[in-house]
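We were asked to recover a plausible sequence for a given structure. The inputs and outputs are reproduced exactly as logged, with field labels preserved.

PROBLEM: sequence recovery
POSITIONS: 286
GIVEN STRUCTURE:
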């Protein structure tokens, strides 16, 4: 008889939230770079500008919204992916084929992206608030205040502004993170050269973070622009055309900080997740 541990449905949300607390400043700088109408600053320059104008703590603007987003978006997609994946493994007594992992990642990520759209929009607004003039700031006190004010001042529909892009991005990120992590971990362990330990988790999550960054960056740029807009875009196609006028590179604006943020976030998320699974997971005796 052997024993293994499975994740509880909420472990993904907890792991992603813990990772977000560490990588939030990088996420904030990424949003600032993506919402520039012209490329005036790079990553280091934008970071220095925020710190000089608002202080070091400004790098954590919108942290409450970021945590709210992780506990809706990431919790949902991890719960869907891992629950169905575990059921499929029990049924087939073996790992899922990669195409099934991709399909499951698309479904789980799309659902999670939609559920997390309101918190994601407030997150983008709170992060972007520090760089606009004082008279134009929204000044949300925290994530719940932001959600309530958007609903009260702009209507329920506005809470789901950019939901199509957020859901599509969520689908691609989940394929890049969860499906690619599972596959990379399976391949690494299959070589017999490494054991199921933190080094394997680090290597597999590093690969997954790179895949997720490349897959989702164009949609991430469009999502950020739609969520931060004040009515200048009449729809997705209008946003695409307006962004395209800046050149093909505009769709990959902030790619480096996105990778610098998403890859560490992915690595930390899966390391935390694996530790939670080992220490507090559901015991399965086979």
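RECOVERED SEQUENCE:
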């Amino acid at each position: 008889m052997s024993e293994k541990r499975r994740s509880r449905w909420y472990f993904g949300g907890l792991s992603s939230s813990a990772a977000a607390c560490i990588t939030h400043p990088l996420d904030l700088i990424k949003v600032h770079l993506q919402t520039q109408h012209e490329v005036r600053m790079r990553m280091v320059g934008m970071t220095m500008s925020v710190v000089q104008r608002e202080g070091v703590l400004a790098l954590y603007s919108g942290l409450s919204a970021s945590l709210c987003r992780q506990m809706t978006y990431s919790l949902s997609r991890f719960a869907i992916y891992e629950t169905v994946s575990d059921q499929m493994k029990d049924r087939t007594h073996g790992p899922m084929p990669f195409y099934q992992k991709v399909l499951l990642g698309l479904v789980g990520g799309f659902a999670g992206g939609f559920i997390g759209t309101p918190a994601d929009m407030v997150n983008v607004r709170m992060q972007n608030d520090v760089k606009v003039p004082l008279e134009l700031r929204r000044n949300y006190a925290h994530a719940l205040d932001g959600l309530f004010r958007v609903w009260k001042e702009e209507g329920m529909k506005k809470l789901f502004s950019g939901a199509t892009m957020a859901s599509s991005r969520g689908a691609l990120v989940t394929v890049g993170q969860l499906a690619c992590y599972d596959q990379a971990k399976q391949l690494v362990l299959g070589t017999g050269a490494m054991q199921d330990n933190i080094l394997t988790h680090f290597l597999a999550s590093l690969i997954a973070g790179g895949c997720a960054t490349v897959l989702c960056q164009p949609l991430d740029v469009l999502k950020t622009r739609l969520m931060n807009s004040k009515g200048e875009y009449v729809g997705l196609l209008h946003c695409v055309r307006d962004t395209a006028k800046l050149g093909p590179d505009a769709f990959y604006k902030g790619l480096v900080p996105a990778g610098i943020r998403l890859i560490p976030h992915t690595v930390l998320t899966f390391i935390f997740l694996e530790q939670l699974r080992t220490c507090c997971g559901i015991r399965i005796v086979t």
